[in-house]
Amino acid sequence: MKKNASFILMDSSLAKYLYNTLQDLHPKSRYANELLQGLADLMEGEVATLMLGMTGQGEHFVNVVDDGIYAGALEIHPKSRKVLHSGIEVSLTPKEFDILYFLAKNKGEVFTKEQIYQAVWAEDYLMADSNIMAFIRKLRKKIEPNPDAPEYILTIWGIGYKFTERE
Length: 167
Description:
Blueprint: H1 12-25, H2 32-43, E1 69-71, E2 74-77, E3 82-85, E4 88-90, H3 94-105, E5 111-112, H4 113-120, H5 129-143, E6 153-156, E7 160-163
Antiparallel strand pairs: 1-2, 2-3, 3-4, 5-7, 6-7
């Protein structure tokens, strides 16, 4: 049976986090500013309670889990195999996606070219450093604002690559 209402307590740190996150992400919703103002009112003590309601019935949220990995303006969605940069879809080959997803899900961890190769290629394939380097170069051209000064896929000289730790 579906509940009509749910009361959830929120402390000041959560309210501030939600407020800051909404300000930073600028969600594409006409209700975002109203929620921001409501959170501001809550933090300033002008109101003691916020009531949130869903437009329509909210059926499109049933069984939906956001599986995305987010870093700055980059979004990686493994279930749909979509990558967005600043809300615009980036077209990647299957291997480019696999490399990006592998690095992103292991954010901050440094991998050698061999480790990336072993994680992404299931079949035996002639592994050459230049193969991984070529994929990384093509990937950077597609996702990096400035491929010559990458923000997402970072080179760790003498070792390999890592995905940025920034949120």
